[in-house]
Amino acid sequence: MTDLTEDEKKQDELYREEGRLLFAGEATFMKGAVAIDGLPPIETVEIAFAGRSNVGKSSLVNALTGRKTLAKVSNTPGRTQELNFFRIGTRLTMVDMPGYGFAEAPEAKVRAWTRLVLDYLRGRTNLGRVYVLIDSRHGVKNTDTPVLDLLDKTAVSYQVVLTKWDQVKKGDRETRLDEVRAALARRPAAYPEIIVTSSKEGEGLADLKAAIVRLIAERA
């Protein structure tokens, strides 16, 4: 990351404080949608979390909001089978998308999830960014590539968030970051900055909150 000017540092501090306050406030589950006609009304800036099954999407939603059970967490891959909407304060809606890459899911169900996600990405005008969660222990895998291709094709801005960072040895971290940067280098819709997180340890959560608040400000 490049060095920040004094003004940029002050702005970053403001975003971090705004992010802390936003996610410390009210957070509620709105609804789960299994079809495009079941989506809630467009009212706020929306962000979505995408990722392979068991990458830690629900855990991250809970960690961001400081609530243990806002999003359902399961050790069973593929449990999230709908678009789950959460209202954060009055300025933000978060969406937990169905996990992908779970080979044992019925083919018909996978097709339905894929169609729902594609329709959502193409038609949700208030969608500010998709945060693509990547398990930092493994990096970008073949199962991630079709989703990144889809986001590039639909011109939906996305940013990679590495999860479970606490489980990567310190000596391997820079190599893993370099690998992910290389995988994203020529992708037109990818936001260049990678955020590393640990839902368990809390690492990187302030960075992610600040990035989300910055996005809200940019779309105001």
What does this molecule look like?
InterPro entries: G_ENGB_dom (IPR030393), GTP-bd (IPR006073), GTP-bd_ribosome_bio_YsxC (IPR019987), P-loop_NTPase (IPR027417). It holds the Pfam family MMR_HSR1. Keywords: Cell cycle, Cell division, GTP-binding, Magnesium, Metal-binding, Nucleotide-binding, Septation. Belongs to the TRAFAC class TrmE-Era-EngA-EngB-Septin-like GTPase superfamily. EngB GTPase family. The protein is an alpha/beta fold and 220 residues long. The protein has a single domain (6-218), classed as Rossmann fold (3-Layer(aba) Sandwich), CATH 3.40.50.300. Helices cover 36% and strands 19% of the residues. It is built from six helices and seven strands; from the N terminus they run αββαββαβαβαβα. It has helices at residues 6-24, 57-65, 107-123, 145-153, 173-184, 205-218; strands at 27-33, 45-51, 83-88, 92-96, 127-135, 158-163, 195-196. Strands 1-3-4-2-5-6-7 form a seven-stranded mixed beta sheet. Strand 6 (158-163), helix 5 (173-184) and strand 7 form a beta-alpha-beta unit. Helix 1 packs across helix 6 (205-218). The longest helix is centred in the N-terminal third of the chain and has 19 residues, at 6-24. The protein is globular. The model is unreliable at 74-78 (pLDDT under 50).
